[in-house]
Amino acid sequence: MKRRLLTYICVFLAGTLYAGAQEVISPEGSVLPDDSVYVTVGDVAVDTVPQRKSPLEAKVIYSAKDSIVMTAGNMAYLFGEANVKYQNIELQSEAIDIDMDSSQVYAKFALDSIGDEFGYPLFSQGDQQYEGKTMRYNFKTRKGYITHVVTQQGEGYVIADRTKKTETDALNMVGGKYTTCDHHDHPHFYIQMTKAKVRPNKDIVTGPVYLVIEDVPLPVALPFAFFPFTSEYSSGIIMPSYGDESKRGFNLHDGGYYFALSDYVDLALTGDIYTKGSWRVNARSTYRKRYKFSGNFDLSYAVNVEGDKGMPDYTKSKDFSVKWSHTQDAKMNPYRSFSASVNFATSSYHRNEIGSFYPGSNGYSDASQNNKGSTINLTQRFPNSPFTVAATFSVNQQTRDSMLAVTLPDISITMSRIYPFKRKNAVGKERWYEKISMSYSGYLRNTINTKEYLLMESSLLKDWKNGMKHNIPVSANFNVFNYINISPSFNYTERWYTSKITETYDPIAQRMAPADTTMGFYRLYDFNASLSASTTIYGDFTPVAFLKKLTGIQMIRHRLEPSVSVSYRPDFGDPLFGFMERYSYVNSQGEEQIYEYSPFRHGIYGVPPTGKSGMVSFSLDNNLEMKVASKNDSIAEKKVSLIDKLSLTGFGYNMAVDSFKWSQNFNANLRIKFGKAYTLNLNMTFDTYMNEAIRDSEGNITGLRKVDKLRVMNGRGLGRLQRTGTSFNYTFNNDTFKKLFGGKKDSSKGDSGGDSQQGDGMTSPDQQGGDGMEGDQQGGGRLLGKKKEVGERDDDGYLITQIPWSFTINYSMNLGYDTKKIDEKRLEYKYGLTHNLTFNGNIQPTKNWRFNFNATYNFDAKKITNLSCNITRELHCFQMSASFMPVGPYKSYSFSIAVNSSLLKDLKYNQSSNYRDAQQWY
To answer: How far apart are CA 536 and CA 559, in angstroms?
Structure first.
């Protein structure tokens, strides 16, 4: 009896259990008909009962890793990473029940040995995914029911306790939440939706909603809400931000509308409005045509009202700003190029812009600059021609005193170097005249220097300066005796002006003053010729054997490059040329004076030089380096630079003058490399002549002037240092002390798939795994389930803690004559030292905290004159930042906490002060 019972059980199990992980395809008709009647037509049997049409349009394919159990009631039970596929629908779960009669599936999670949940159901349809704890779906009706659903829509996540999926793929939810926080089980913040309808990839429409932060409902509610989702390029409203100032009042700023005009151009119209009457409008646009051009522009107009009307502190000003950047793709036209870089604003515009004094804010780079420049360039090159034509419009602006330098137009015509005597079909050696080359450059310029408010009132003929200049250099290069390079040259320059200004003596002012402006065409020219010779001399020193062994020095090489040149230029102040005028007058003491001047000295290209010149000039370049035996290799040698460059220039003798024949100044340049970290550059100017005192009527020394006495002839040396300067900058960071004390860089970073530090030495939260958590569920990208911590680990499995930091010092020093301080005993100017120190740094003590600062130290005032600090804290789905300037003329602060997601960027809190409020710091 027992054996018979055991046999029955084995037969039953063999009939009901299929091999695990095999794939099963359901029959097209899940239910067979109850009865059939067959008739014979000829030799073929025909079923007279019509076949039932399957309610499904395709086969349902299901599989499981562990086991599949099928029962007599047309039920199938899938265990272990179960999977069901139907058309573009796929359902994955740890356990799935399939009712073949009703075409309905039910998926649920499972529990492991310690009672933890795993294998949550995942429903996929096209590019949409829904994850939940339980799911029920009908393939016939295409309807479903999900508990604890989580799905990503746009940049956020939709979470709901109970959800019904309709045949149109819409989701009807009760008790839903919308958040951009990826802690789905317990989000840091969310918008509670009592009832909602979700249309995937389109929008969410809800009933009453309210905001919840850290499980605390806030009194911020709406009767309904609408969340649009679109990946398409579309127009939309730009929500404003709010703020307040004591002088301009409460405000709404940076609000407006964004226009998606086309695939090539967009437009954003925004504005600001203040309760005390100030307002601003702004238009921003970006355009791009592939392989053609790209650019952007930013136009703003503002009216600033400060104080109360009728009060003494009431002011009203109008400002505007224009920014335009345009770049042409090189593929568009190889011979013509057009570019623009415009940055123009009234001097007070950026002082009135919100937050423009904090690093990283909009307008900071403009507000912190005293000089701004704008240029528009058009260049035309000609194929198979040496000529190039370029036109430029430029504006240089000084915001400190509202000065403008406008040039319109600035046209240049250049011809690249050509060899006019070179033979087209050369036979034999190159002849000497074939080495003669020439080029040409011509310039036409119209410019004005004026104040901002006077620009539109200026006269083109009276106030604007214009002229044209031509320059033709001719030169050649010959080699003599294989060691000496001879270079003769001739240079011709011509200037064209349309006006000249004659002067006369003003007896009231007791000085010469402009008297009359004569319009016409005036041509001025000058020329000069020169001949130079240069060579290179090498000197080697080889130490004796015991010095080589003792010091490791194998050889010291000195490279010397002397150069001498002779130049001649006639005196273009001679009446023969007619470029200078002489005026005779009687001064207030009754003495006859002769005043010599050029009526063209107002010209933008100057006037021909006066005074004959027959100059012999000398220059000398030095380089000193040595070869040292390598400590690690007995054969290899390394080159060490002792003096990278030492040059003497500007030293010459003028044979054509009666006094001051030697150069009054000469220059020396020194460059020394101290390893790879620092290079010392010193530019020095030396004074070669003695001084004599300038005394007033009481005999007091008021100044010094040069006398024709060389210092070297009077025991004062070859020259006295007149001015010099250098600069130094260095950055300290995590690797600095490792290099100094022989430490090695951490090579583990290279094994993690890339550098974990950004350009500023800081580690972004995204590079450390966002919030430090990631899903560990099967298939990757799961929304539900436990999270695990990620990060770099050492060989023992411990997390590596890093604190990236950097500190940069910039120091510049200039030493020179202080013309206000005179050593009356030695008749020399005393030295004055000016130096500047700026430093900045940043540190990231944890992966979420960051701190950086910028400061400037004024040595004259002996204090820090400018200091700005920034503190940032990553709060997972929020970011908190604070900026403050505790010293300087712009004392102020700014605090902000906002959602990271751009979709909810208006969910934020801002608080700031303004430098106008004269914030007092304690």
So the answer is: 7
The token duo for 751 is: 């094994």
The phi and psi torsions of 755 (rounded to 5 degrees) equal -75, 130
Phi, psi of 546 (to 5 degrees): -70, -30
Residue range 302-315, pLDDT digits in tens: 988 877 777 777 78
User: Any long-range contacts for 391-396 (C-beta under 8 Å, 24+ apart)?
Assistant: 395/342, 395/344, 396/371, 396/372
Distance CA 681, CA 683 (A): 7
Classify 286 as helix, strand or coil.
strand
pLDDT of residue 452: 77
Whole-angstrom distance, CA of residue 295 vs CA of residue 323: 11
Confidence of residue 634 (pLDDT cuts 50, 70, 90): low
- How close are the terminal C-alpha atoms of the chain, in Å? 99
Residue owning tokens 């409020």 = 917
CB 151 within 8 A of CB 158: yes
**3-state SS, residue 192:** strand
The CA-CA-CA angle for residues 779, 784, 785, to 5°, reads: 85
- Looking at residue 770, its pLDDT comes to 40
Q: How buried is residue 60: exposed, middle or buried, by Cβ count under 10 Å (0-12/13-18/19+)?
A: buried
pLDDT over 60 (residue 450)? yes
What pLDDT shows up at residue 741? 58
Contact 494, 469 (CB under 8 A): yes
Phi, psi of 452 (to 5 degrees): -60, -45
**Rounded distance between C-alpha atoms, residue 913 and residue 246, angstroms:** 9
817 touches 832 (CB < 8 A): yes
Q: Is 506 helix (H, G, I), strand (E, B) or coil?
A: strand
The amino acid that residue 334 corresponds to is P
Beta strands in 630-700 (DSSP E): 637-654, 665-674, 678-687, 689-695
CB 121 within 8 A of CB 108: yes
Strands (DSSP E) found in 711-827: 720-733, 773-775, 787-789, 805-823
CA distance 479 to 195: 92
Greatest CA span in the chain, whole angstroms?
Answer: 155
Give the whole-angstrom CA distance, residue 826 versus residue 543: 46
**Residue 886 CA: distances (Å) to CA of 354, 858, 897, 917:** 18, 16, 21, 14
H helix or E strand, kind and range, residue 12: helix 2-16
Q: What is the DSSP string of 519-532?
A: EEEEEEEEEEEEEE
Please name which of 853, 850, 839 lies closest in space to residue 803, comparing C-alpha atoms.
850
User: Partners of 827 in the beta sheet?
Assistant: none
Average confidence score pLDDT of the chain: 81
**What's the pLDDT at 411?**
94
| Cβ-proximal residues to 401 (8 Å cutoff; 6+ apart), any chain | none
Tokens of 337: 């190029």
Strand partners of residue 85 = 61, 90
Please give the model's pTM, rounded to 2 decimal places: 0.64
Closest-CA residue to 153 (of 191, 179, 123): 179
Whole-angstrom distance, CA of residue 892 vs CA of residue 357: 9
pLDDT in tens, 842-893: 999 888 899 999 998 888 878 888 888 999 998 888 888 998 888 777 778 8
- Residue 914: pLDDT band (50, 70, 90) is low
* Residue range 775-796, pLDDT digits in tens: 333 334 466 765 555 556 767 7
Alpha-carbon span 557 to 543, nearest angstrom: 12
Contact criterion met (CB below 8 Å) for 52 and 107: no
Q: What percent of the chain has pLDDT over 90?
A: 31
Tell me how far apart the alpha carbons of residues 219 and 234 are, in angstroms, rounded to a whole number.
Answer: 32
Residues 498-547 pLDDT 10s: 889 988 888 888 888 888 888 889 999 999 999 999 999 999 998 888 88
Best CA proximity match to 681, nearest among 649, 635, 729, 735: 729
Three-state SS at 116: coil
